Structures are given as C-alpha cells and as structure tokens.
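Researcher: Let's do a round of design. I'm pasting the structure tokens now; please hold your answer until I've finished.
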C-alpha cells in the first residue's frame, strides 16, 4: 500500500482478494466439515429448537397379600418391597404402555396426534418429521421416542416418562397412561378371576350332571327290578322266613308229642298240613332271596354298584362346590392393584433440548468426521503415482 494514499489501490485489493481466496480454498474442507455444521447447530439450538417438557410418574404393582404381610423377617421384607409380587403384571403394563393399543387409546381419549403436531414445536421435532408421512405407523415410531416406560430395578419401581412441547400436554399424556395402566390391571384381575372361577364352575356342572345321571340310573333300576332297597328287602324276607321256621319248629314239636302219646288224636292230620304249608312258605321266601334268576341276591350287586356311583358322584359334587368357593376366595385374595408412588408432575421448566450439550456434540462429531476425511485424503495423495 502506498503511504501517500489512505486507501488501497486496485492492484493491492486484487492481491488481497486473491490471498483470501487461496486461504479459503486451503481451509474449505475444515469450513465445510466443521465450521458450517457448528454454525447451523448454534442457529438451530439457539434460535429454532423448541422447548421440551418432561413429566415423570412411578408406580408399583402389589397384591393384598403383600399389603397384609408383616415385616418381621427378611423374607417378608423382600416380599413387601418393590415388585416381587407383581413382576409379571408390571412387565405386562410396561409392554402395554409401549404398544400400539395404548397409542390407539390415547388417540381416542386425548387426541395425542394433535399434541405432537402442535405449532409450538419446531419443524424438525414436531410430528410428522421431515421425510415422514402422517400414518399411524409413523406416529407409533414417533410415540416410541417421546414415551419411555421402563423398570427401575434399583428402586424397584416402574417409570413412565413423557416428552411434550407444553407442560400441560406432558402431564395429560402421562396421567392418561397411568389411568390406562390401572384399567389394564383391573382387566387382568377380571380375566384371571373369571378363568379360575369358570374352571371351577365347569367342574361343578360336570359333577351335577354325574349326580343326575346316577340318580336316574338308580331310579330306572328300581322300577325295572321292582325293588326299593334290595338289602333291606332281603333282610325283611329273611326275618319272615326265620319267624316261619320258628313256628314250624314249634308245630313239629307239638306233632311229634301227639304222635308219641296219642297216635289216634284227630288233630294230627291238621298239624301235619300246617307244618307242610309253613315249609312251602319258607321255601318260597328263601327262593325270593337266593333264587337263581329273580332272587334279591342276584339283583343286589347291580343295585350296590349304582348306589356307590351315586354316593361317589355326590361326594364329587361336594368337592367341586368347595373348590368353587375356594377359587372365588383365592381370586379375591390374589387380586393385584396399581399403587402410584409418584403422580405425574406438571413440569415448570423444560428439560430438553440440552442446547450446549447438543452444540458440543455437533462440534465433536464434525471434528471427528473432518479428521477422518483429512486422513483419508492425505493417504490418497501419498499413494498417488507421480506424474
């Protein structure tokens, strides 16, 4: 620059522009890979990125048995702490919270799609995101990034975290998810209770049918054989036969005395006739009991089998009724319930995005990419053949 002129001449300006262009060309890789992403990150996180509010809730699943347990021993302490008694139910609830069914329920109850597509969110963060459509599957993928449902094994509680663009939206979504979880617990209780009771009731119905069939079979047997109770009837017949045998013995003794003392007594023929008639009646009564085909003894076996079947069926019915009562009691006793440890909060300040961390992350990633690309270019130049 000439000392006599306060401004650079045209030639000097051209030289400066040429040197600046060479400098830009020399560092263009660094500018493109590092400086430009950093400037964009600063612009996005500093001016564009919308605030994200996070609402958190915690719950456990317990049963009445856990509530009544005494904490006198280490075993009871373990039983009444955390999710030891409702681990399976808790996993089912967390799976449901992350499921499409929960998202569908949220769409019906609180129109979650509009809450994620609010104008309060920036264009890169709201639903649908760039290069994404407004389908349910896209919403489900977006939902999976905004709702976190997991088990905190350290504290023994289930955690639901919801991210939204307003404090009220995050609170409403979290509260609705808890209400849906409570409905699911009630549904699981109802299903388990219904299944156990239904199985017990089915056994009662089978036992009732068996008792009915046994009674019908016994009644038909009695009508067919013209017997009420063969064992009692056989006893009655034998008692009659024994009475007649005793009477015949007395008459026979009287007849023997007359024949010995007064052989010509006119009463002897009559006594003989009476003895003979009684003997015929005794034989008839004996044949009723032990006859070959129609005797009571031949029918006693079938009758006793039917009686045993009826008694066994009745005992089975009593057992089935007792099992039904026990199943109802167990179903009531083993019900699970969702106990809120921490209710959903209304956040008073946004927790996301972490703007400085985001900017630093972009800078670090850009530098790594720049150095990798720079090393690659150096390697290519070193191994290039000399012209």
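Researcher: That's everything. Go ahead.
Model: Designed sequence:
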């Amino acid at each position: 620059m000439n000392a006599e002129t306060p401004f650079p001449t045209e030639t000097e300006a051209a030289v400066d522009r040429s040197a600046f262009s060479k400098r830009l060309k020399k560092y263009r890789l660094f500018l493109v890979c590092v400086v430009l992403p950093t400037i964009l990150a600063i612009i996005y996180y500093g001016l564009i990125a919308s605030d994200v509010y996070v609402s958190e809730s915690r719950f456990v699943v317990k049963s009445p048995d856990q509530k009544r347990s005494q904490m006198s021993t280490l075993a009871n302490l373990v039983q009444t702490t955390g999710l030891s008694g409702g681990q399976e139910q808790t996993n089912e609830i967390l799976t449901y919270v992350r499921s499409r069914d929960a998202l569908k329920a949220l769409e019906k109850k609180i129109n979650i799609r509009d809450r994620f597509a609010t104008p309060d969110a920036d264009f890169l963060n709201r639903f649908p995101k760039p290069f994404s459509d407004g389908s349910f599957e896209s919403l489900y993928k977006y939902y999976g990034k905004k709702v976190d449902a997991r088990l905190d094994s350290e504290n023994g509680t289930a955690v639901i975290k919801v991210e939204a663009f307003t404090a009220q939206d995050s609170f409403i979504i979290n509260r609705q998810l808890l209400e849906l979880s409570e409905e699911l617990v009630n549904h699981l209780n109802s299903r388990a209770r219904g299944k156990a009771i239904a199985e017990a009731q089915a056994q009662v119905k089978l036992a009732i049918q068996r008792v009915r069939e046994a009674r019908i079979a016994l009644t038909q047997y009695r009508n067919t054989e013209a017997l009420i109770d063969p064992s009692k009837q056989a006893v009655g017949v034998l008692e009659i036969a024994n009475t007649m045998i005793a009477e015949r013995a007395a008459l026979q003794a009287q007849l023997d005395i007359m024949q010995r003392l007064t052989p010509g007594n006119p009463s002897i023929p009559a006594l003989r006739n009476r003895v003979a008639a009684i003997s015929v009646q005794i034989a008839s009564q004996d044949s009723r009991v032990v006859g070959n085909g129609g005797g009571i003894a031949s029918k006693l076996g079938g009758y006793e089998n039917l009686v045993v079947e009826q008694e066994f069926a009745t005992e089975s019915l009593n057992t089935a009724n007792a099992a039904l009562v026990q199943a109802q009691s167990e179903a009531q006793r083993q019900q699970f319930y969702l106990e809120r440890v921490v209710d959903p909060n209304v956040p008073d300040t946004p927790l996301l995005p972490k703007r400085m961390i985001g900017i630093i992350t972009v800078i670090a990633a850009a530098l790594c990419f720049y150095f990798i690309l720079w090393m690659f270019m150096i390697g290519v130049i070193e191994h290039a053949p000399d012209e």
